[in-house]
Amino acid sequence: MRELDDRELASRAAAPLRASDDAALGTFLGVAGEVARRRLGLDPFDEQLLAAATMLRGGVVDMATGEGKTLVGFLAASGL
Predict the structure, then answer these.
(1) Is the pLDDT score of 16 beyond 80?
(2) Are 70 and 10 spatial neighbours (Cβ–Cβ below 8 Å)?
């Protein structure tokens, strides 16, 4: 995703998300993670991406202080 320009990234972001589809979820999280890196200056850790995927699939995530709940919330909310 880092090689895509903003227009190509936006095009990928426009695709509908099916959280039950592993490939679609992986693409979505790749796009959302790249947007977070470009716009917020935050590069999501694997644990944050996994937490967002769990939330998008209807699960509950328990995270300790300092583990990046705000970024996980951004990632999950952007998929709704």
Answers:
(1) no
(2) no
